[in-house]
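Lab channel / #folding
Pinned by the channel admin:
"Please post every new chain as: sequence first, then the structure tokens as a reply. Keep commentary short and put observations after the output so the thread stays searchable."

First post following the new format, from NK:
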Amino acid sequence: MSDARMKILEMLSDGKITTDEASALLEKVTASEKEEEISKLEPVNSSIPRYLRIVVDSADGDKVNIKVPMSLIKTGIKLSALMPADATEAMEDQGINLSMLKDLPSDELIEALKELEVNVDSADGDIVRIFTE
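Reply from TO:
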């Protein structure tokens, strides 16, 4: 058990704080510990990213940790040029146009993704991080 949790429980047992206050403090400590845990997974900015990383830690306890090799992204760009016409049309009907991806130099995409960082901390405690490493 962390020192912060012990101090909160000691204050509660000494009657210095109420159970509601202790609960609120413990929630903050838990959120802080989750943030610290996820920050260990965040990138050390290297020269060329090798992976696209997606980390989700929900308040309900669900955890997702996805590591997509950049080589797979490069291959996906090339494969988009081979998609059947009806699939392409169906995607375009939904506002998704992949035709420009086939002409996109994959090295430029990888370079652009190097700076990608998405951080979402929802009000209900869900944490989402998307980055490259």
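NK: The two ends are 31 Å apart (CA to CA).
TO: also worth noting, Residues 1-40 form one domain.
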